[in-house]
Amino acid sequence: MNRCRSSLTSAAVVFAAVLAASVLLFAVPEARSQDTSSGSAPYFQVVDNSDEERFRASGWERRGQNAQAYGEDFVRAGSSAGAAGFKVKIPKTRYYTVYARWPGDGGNLSAARVRVPTASGTKWEEIDQRSDAGLWVSVGVYKMKRGERVVEVEGQDGAVADAVMVAADAMVAPEGRTASYANPDELAGEDPEGKESTAARSGETDAQTRTYANPTRADVVRQAKRHLGTPYRYGGLSACRAFRTEDCSCLTRLVYKQFGRTLPDHPGQQWQGRYGKKIYSKSGLRAGDLVFFDYSRDGQLNDPHDAVAVYAGNGSVIIASSYWGKVARVEMRYLNGFWGGKRLALR
Asked: Looking at the record, which segments are called Disordered (predicted)?
């Protein structure tokens, strides 16, 4: 059965094979900083808005507890607010993934801006804070210089600043495309169970079904993040082993099984199934949606190079990728052949 065999953007098979081979040599994660939180985790740092030494914000109003916030509270910009700054420690000049977190607070700004001090100058990214509340959202992957650096959130009347994370989990390919592989929920201590499950310990084909009370799209993304870093292996159900070896339709099948949905093990069949709402524009995607790619550009989803992923918010997906050799978080701008999305009702 044809199943997603590659997450390369090129349609040329020969070029794809050469490029994939080069990635094996150059796209492995760079050496971790000595300031790692554990023997296996990459270096990371979380700065919360309550950290008086590392956070500053003039003209921002402190708000009380919110279930979607990180820590005890968060701040919201007033009409005369300046930029809210999060000071992060960069132990080594290299590539880092920058994450931002914000809760839903009613009237969140649709075009807040995040300023990232990179090795090549300041980068500004626009984020829609009306979406993806309560998630660690990837702002992007950037090369940052060693030292104390300030990541800023800007936007008057409605911008929200809660917490920022930097993690040395970035992967960089020779031609410049990037991805990341760590689960920020686990790094931040919000997913203590992590990948430990009956399936992970016993090697069962499917992960044990968990119980979610009133599951949300954010729960789907959190479940998908647990698979980040899992080795890629193309194949049928025999190769679909939760947290051990997965390809793209295996990943989406395992994720949605946790929410009472049994999906076929094929991108085309997941798209064609008579369930869920189909979405035909990137702007219509929401966290937790399935996203499909016609890499072969043949007008149908039945080629081994076609793929399916989980939308993770802010233009990125979580995908089991032969290009990176593992489940990774990838910006959609690196993936050609967008076909559409699908929003499944949760049980």
From this structure: 177-212
- Point out the least confidently predicted range of 11-25, 74-88, 272-286: 11-25
pLDDT in tens, 38-70: 346 899 999 999 999 999 999 999 998 788 999
Tokens found for residue 87: 């000071």
Cα–Cα distance, 291 to 307 (Å, whole number): 8
Question: Which pTM was predicted?
Answer: 0.84
* Phi, psi angles (nearest 5°) of residue 180: -140, 160
How confident is residue 213, by pLDDT bands cut at 50, 70 and 90?
Answer: low
CATH number of the structural domain 44-168: 2.60.120.260
Burial class of residue 202 in the structure, from the number of CB atoms within 10 Å of its CB (0-12 exposed, 13-18 middle, 19+ buried): exposed
What class does CATH assign to 13-29+179-343? alpha beta
Domain boundaries along the sequence of the chain: 13-29+179-343, 44-168
**In CATH terms, are 13-29+179-343 and 44-168 the same topology?**
no
